[in-house]
Design brief:
Helices cover 20% and strands 36% of the residues. It has 150 residues and is of the alpha+beta class. It has a four-stranded antiparallel sheet with strand order 1-2-3-6, with no helix packed on it. It has a four-stranded antiparallel sheet with strand order 5-4-7-8, with no helix packed on it. It starts with 6 loop residues before the first helix and ends with a strand.
């Protein structure tokens, strides 16, 4: 008695198993890391409450979602006096105030730096709930402010 040839069926079964295995591996693979670009345009009008400072500034930042490292470069000009401090604040929506999340040191313009964020800080940053604040003696609550946006 001859046995039926199963080559075609086995090849089809092996191909289906291979495709299923590949699909499962892709589904279970960890999400890839991203490097996000963020920016903040700094002005007195963005302060809470707003002030009449003619000063302007800008901050460009990158955030690496894998390492949780925030890197920034910024500048400002036209302050009413020397800067006394600079910080990232959060969590706060535009128009709201919050405590210091990360100090910017040194803060003389131009400035740059890096910080490794906690999970909570990273979540607030990604949700757009951080802002940059430049403080002066004449405006101790902040002379320039800008919300970090993607």
């Amino acid at each position: 008695m001859r046995r039926p040839c199963m080559t075609t069926d086995m090849t089809t079964d092996i191909g289906a198993v291979g495709a299923l295995t590949a699909a499962l591996l892709l589904a279970l693979a960890p999400a890839s890391a991203e490097t996000l670009q963020l920016k903040a345009d700094l002005s007195g009008a963005s302060e809470v409450p707003p002030n009449q400072s003619p000063a302007k500034g800008a901050v460009a930042a990158t955030y690496d979602t894998s390492s949780k490292v925030l890197t920034w470069k910024g500048n400002y000009a036209g302050l009413s006096g020397d800067a006394t401090a600079a910080h990232f604040h959060g969590p706060a929506d535009p128009g709201k105030n919050a405590g210091v999340a990360v100090a910017i040191k040194p803060f003389a313009s131009p400035f740059e730096g890096t910080a490794t964020l906690t999970d909570a800080q990273a979540a607030d940053l990604m949700a757009g709930r951080w802002y940059v604040n430049i403080h002066t003696a004449g405006n101790p609550g902040g002379e320039l402010r800008g919300q970090l946006t993607k």
